[in-house]
Amino acid sequence: MEKSVCKSKEWAAHVQAGSDHAERYIDRLISVLQSIDREAIGRIIELFLQARARGSTIFFLGNGGSAATAAHFANDLGFGASPEGKTPFRALCLASNPAFLTCLANDIGYENIFSWQLRNLMRPGDIVVGISASGNSPNVVNALLYAAENNGIPVAFTGFDGGRIKHIAHYCVHFVTNKGEYGPVEDAHMVLDHLIASYLAHVD
Fold this sequence. Notes:
Elements: H1 2-34, H2 38-54, E1 57-62, H3 65-80, E2 90-93, H4 98-108, H5 113-121, E3 127-132, H6 138-149, E4 153-158, H7 163-168, E5 171-174, H8 182-200
Helix pairs in contact: 1-8, 2-8, 3-8, 5-6
């Protein structure tokens, strides 16, 4: 009985601690979102609309949670923002083919898994969106460098101090955070996805 009572008190302590943590996390996320450059988002929206008008492809890429965000972005532009009766967005995630990714990683190195795909697929004027909290992932850096050097348009969605891709990209949305704050950065990138896609879904 005594052990059961102690356990109940332990669980109750987690309820309060979890509630306090939730409040701190939400407050931090709000502060990260409020600090964003709204004009930078507007420039990305204009860039994507121009890509749709000229039939260019928008490639999304990232690692881990950012790979999931890249896939979500491509989904939301390719479906949610491309309803019947409207010119569709050509949107593709380069992190979604495990067979090809593991082939490239095994044979030419993980740092080249995105740039090799761009070598095969990218045309002049296409947009390459690198999503990375740190901005320093070698394969994302190499992809944006490839775009910059081959008449593509490199775009960065990043966090922390922006990393290398902030300085490679022609367009950048940078959520400034402390190093290692992956959660708020990745949350903010998903908000950015839904913000952009919801606007594009209602623009002819």
